[in-house]
């Protein structure tokens, strides 16, 4: 999950800092495309979590129309991040996390055509997207690879047999101490066996499972802050400059900056203060 979160972070950072051309600020349609893609990236951790937990009703309000191996868990926050008109194909075997990567891949292609990303930058974004997909596949493999039933049966039989034979090998030397010592040994071995069974599916709702809800919630909160700041920056570019905020300094906080004929946007996360001449 950490690899997925890191890839999403890197993609969001690259998009918001490089999503413009030197000809001028993004158009309304381009800004909508950027925000749509960032929201899709926010949705990917939700999609991975829901897919691993078989929460098929998380993105769409399916009601009770969910198979017995699924969970009805509609999440409006998750559903609001998905592209409008999205049709899921999870009932046909296509995972929604993989489906969402097609939208991000298409955005990278459009960004290259618009002149936002050069070839090395687009290649790095593709590498991040590939790392995300690879991590999702590995988590899916863990989910779909349970401990073999034959192994579980044999393991319990061997532990039971060992627990029956062990007292006879210790009683001559330890006497009555054999009872607490054998109990401690068997308790330890069965505890290890139980831990192995718990680790078989670490993506569930148990207290000792991976805190999927907390990780996904933190990712959404963090990226929402970045998206809000990007919106503020885009809104500042639409405000016509005044005499108070124009000077010859290299950074014009919250304003469009021009170097020759090239458009250079201001940096994010800076306080927009009026400048005096």
From TrEMBL:
Gene Ontology MF: a single term: chloride channel activity
Subcellular location as annotated: Membrane
Residue segments, region Disordered: 241-277
The keyword Ion transport is assigned to this record: yes
Highest taxon of the lineage: Eukaryota
Bilayer topology term: Multi-pass membrane protein
UniProt keywords, alphabetically: Ion transport, Membrane, Transmembrane, Transmembrane helix, Transport
GO CC term (a single one): membrane
Basic and acidic residues composition-biased segments: 255-264
PANTHER family named in the record: PTHR33281:SF16, UPF0187 PROTEIN YNEE
Name of the protein in question: UPF0187-domain-containing protein
